[in-house]
Amino acid sequence: MSFSLNEMEATAKRATRGAGYCWGQAEEAAKATRWLCAQGLDGASSLAALLSLGFASNPSMHRPKGASGVWTGEVALCPLSVGPLLSDSAHLLDEGHIEIHDLAAPALLLPFASYAARALNCAVAVEIDQIEAITDGVALSAPDRFPARAQRVVIHRSADPVSPCAQHTRANPTDADWDTLTTFAHRTYAPATEESRLLGAGAGLSDND
What we know:
The protein is α+β, with helices and mostly antiparallel strands. It has seven helices and seven strands.
């Protein structure tokens, strides 16, 4: 399946909201998914896997306990909570590294690392269980795949050059991942009522034939 990045972003936003996240996190998730797809990574798969975990039912359990030291939570951390915190805490990378333990869907952290790189005007490296990605805020140098869950993520400034991934203008989710996203997205649609059917297109209750 192939969709424009605009279509991917819109569906990702509704899907995230349908999964129970607030609209602010849904917007962040949509931008992150689009960014990954533009870099040639499977953002749809990462988001579909995350939403299927049901973290939105108890978000406080999946947030870091604090921004100092090692970032941990009661259980697996959610990248939609960790990511914005990383963006806001980019200045910590001037002092050393940021370490995160037990992070679900870690690929979704990469767009937020790019925001940090832009804020610092430098390249930022993200080591996900020994798999390294580097971003300068625009381009990304990364392998094609990342684990579904990371035991340890380390983020730090990098002096290494970025070898950009080829940019993509379309997203190519699998049928299964797209179905997952659209299923969540449909939860945001109001159910039809007799009044809405009468106000909508078509003959309603009348028969003009």
